[in-house]
Every structure is written in structure tokens, then in C-alpha cells.
Design a protein that fits this description.
single chain; 134 residues; alpha+beta; two-stranded antiparallel sheet; elongated; binds zinc ion
Length: 134
């Protein structure tokens, strides 16, 4: 497991503000945002219409700004689904190779990067953790 000691590098945000996709209502959150490649992920509900969505926030490693993604989709669970799909298909390939007497070893990535560009120009990636599929 990843330790939680990255919080010491967090950018404290007392009023992260976003506007609801559905109704345009203004919402504020109090969050601590760790620096990329760590990220903060949480489900949020619009204070005006109750529409729930999810946000991923990550601090720029080079400055005090941060980037965020808001989506109705649960990106980490999408990534998990994708990882399972990949592993399933690789397994089929490995099985076929085994029938032909070949050996394949595949390293499954432990992290899935999402690329971001900070307003300061820095480019970095947030690394979503892959599930342990062994
Ligand atoms: Zn709303
Ligand atoms: Zn930056």
C-alpha cells in the first residue's frame, strides 16, 4: 500500500471552486491536494441541484497551482475496468502462446498515467493506481 506521508507535500486549498455541469451552480470545497503524481479523488454533490460528480485534483510539482478533472465518470474505476480488460486479453494471448510452446512474461503496469499541463507550463502526469490483479 502507498503510505499517506505525501500529505506533507499537499497544497492546502481552502476554497476550491467549481461550477456544476448540470445547473451551473457554484460549489466550494475544502481539500488538501497532494502534488502529482499523487492526487486527491472524491465524489462531490452539487449544493444547488444535488447532482453528484467526481473530481480528481493534483498539485503541480513545479509551482503552487493545481489542475483538476471533473467528470461524471469515475475515472479510477474506469481505469480498473480497463486494467481488467487488458489483463483478460493478455491472458488469452498468453494461453495461446502456451499452446504453441512459447513463453511470455508481461509486466502489468502498477500505475496508469493521466497527462496534465499546468497553467505555469509544467507538464506532468497523475498516476492512478492499478488494482492488484495477481
Ligand atoms: Zn448543480
Ligand atoms: Zn505549475
Amino acid at each position: 500500500m502507498r503510505s499517506k506521508n505525501t500529505v506533507k507535500d499537499a497544497i492546502a486549498i481552502t476554497d476550491f471552486t467549481y461550477y456544476c455541469y448540470r445547473c451551473g451552480g457554484k460549489n466550494s470545497l475544502d481539500v488538501e491536494i497532494p502534488k502529482a503524481p499523487d492526487y486527491h479523488h472524491q465524489e462531490i454533490a452539487c449544493s444547488s441541484c444535488g447532482d453528484s460528480t467526481r473530481v480528481i485534483l493534483a498539485g503541480c510539482p513545479d509551482c503552487e497551482k493545481y489542475v483538476y478533472w471533473i467528470n461524471d465518470l469515475n475515472i479510477p474505476s474506469l481505469v480498473n475496468g480497463f486494467a481488467k480488460y487488458m489483463v483478460h486479453n493478455m491472458q488469452a494471448m498468453i494461453d495461446r502462446a502456451a499452446q504453441q510452446g512459447a513463453r511470455i512474461s508481461i509486466d502489468t503496469p502498477e500505475q496508469y498515467p493521466i497527462n496534465a499541463t499546468c497553467p505555469c507550463g509544467a507538464r506532468f502526469a497523475v498516476e492512478l493506481e492499478m488494482p492488484d490483479l495477481d
